[in-house]
Amino acid sequence: MDASDKWLTIDELATYLKLSRTKLYGMAQRAELPASKIGNQWRFDREEIDQWMKS
């Protein structure tokens, strides 16, 4: 996996998890899933999301 594949945008994560952007925004704001906010944009580490899904 190269560096460009490591971080997902909210749209990419919504497609990956088959969830709505609205649902994911809420979950990120409530710290219910691993997320990082850079400026005003959320980013999601694919490896952390995969681990979170397994737990």
Summarize the structure in words.
The protein is built from four helices and three strands, in the order αβααββα. By secondary structure, it is of the alpha+beta class. It has a single domain (3-54), classed as Winged helix-like DNA-binding domain superfamily/Winged helix DNA-binding domain (Arc Repressor Mutant, subunit A, Orthogonal Bundle), CATH 1.10.10. The protein has a three-stranded antiparallel sheet with strand order 1-3-2. The longest helix is centred in the middle third of the chain and has 9 residues, at 21-29. The radius of gyration is 10 Å and the shape is globular. It starts with a helix and ends with a helix.
Helix/strand class: alpha+beta
Broad CATH class: Mainly Alpha
Shape, principal axes of CA atoms: globular
Query: Low-confidence segments, ≥5 residues, pLDDT <50?
Result: none
- The CATH fourth-level homologous superfamily: Winged helix-like DNA-binding domain superfamily/Winged helix DNA-binding domain
- The CATH topology comes to Arc Repressor Mutant, subunit A
DSSP strand tally: 3
Major pleated sheet = 3 strands, antiparallel
Query: How many distinct helices?
Result: 4
Please give the order of strands in the largest beta sheet: 1-3-2
How would the blueprint of this fold be written?
Blueprint: H1 3-6, E1 7-8, H2 10-17, H3 21-29, E2 36-38, E3 41-45, H4 46-54
Antiparallel strand pairs: 1-3, 2-3
Structure at a glance:
The protein has four helices and three strands. The chain is of the alpha+beta class and 55 residues long.
Please describe the structure with a list of short key phrases separated by commas or semicolons.
55 residues, alpha+beta, Arc Repressor Mutant, subunit A
